[in-house]
Amino acid sequence: xxxxxxxxxxxxxxxxxxxxxxxxxxxxxxxxxxxxxxxxxxxxxxxxxxxxxxxxxxxxxxxxxxxxxxxxxxxxxxxxxxxxxxxxxxxxxxxxxxxxxxxxxxxxxxxxxxxxxxxxxxxxxxxxxxxxxxxxxxxxxxxxxxxxxxxxxxxxxxxxxxxxxxxxxxxxxxxxxxxxxxxxxxxxxxxxxxxxxxxxxxxxxxxxxxxxxxxxxxxxxxxxxxxxxxxxxxxxxxxxxxxxxxxxxxxxxx
Length: 254
Fold this sequence. Notes:
This protein is of the alpha+beta class. Strands 1, 2, 3, 4, 5, 12 and 13 form a seven-stranded mixed sheet that branches. Strands 6-7-8-9-11-10 form a six-stranded mixed sheet. The mean pLDDT is about 95. The protein has helices at about 35-45, 60-70, 140-155, 175-180, 185-190, 230-240; strands at about 10-15, 20-25, 50-55, 75-80, 85-90, 95-105, 115-120, 125-135, 160-165, 185, 210, 215-220, 245-250. The chain contains six helices and 13 strands.
């Protein structure tokens, strides 16, 4: 896999009350692949919050989610089948103030889409809104969903937020541009690791991303290829997307 990738800043609280939060976005393809490899990748990334796309949605989906959470050392927050795929997991570090799964308007003949949303508190005074999303493959519907993502973020009523997910759009696309215009595109602000998120060997594309509101400081963001504990073998076996890891410094307030 080449050179070892220096890790991003560790999660924790700083003297002024701000919190460093590690956020991972990962399309897990309904856990149809090697869940052990997937869990090892997640653990090596040491995230506080995981925004999942394509979580299990059908028969005994909660049992499958519980298996992944247990293997990765995380707990379930919201989403999965109730959001038609997007889901949020976390460590025990944040306090979950509220969480909700939302279904988006559906275009007949196309896949039902939704959002997993939560407000998490880190320590006594840092509040972070979190949205996990997986947008449409159709441009017109995708753009409308992008606007709904921004509306949902605003409706959380917090000053600082993060949106992470599989956009099915590239940085030159209009939906990606919509989100990048309103929020900070983590990779563009502070690139780290690998840029492209498509499966190894597939055409190079960046279609998964982590965005943050303007008051959040992006300390680094990208695909953790080369991070100790993240092997190419596990990345290939885990799912058909590569994960995106971001370290964010979130100010006090909310």
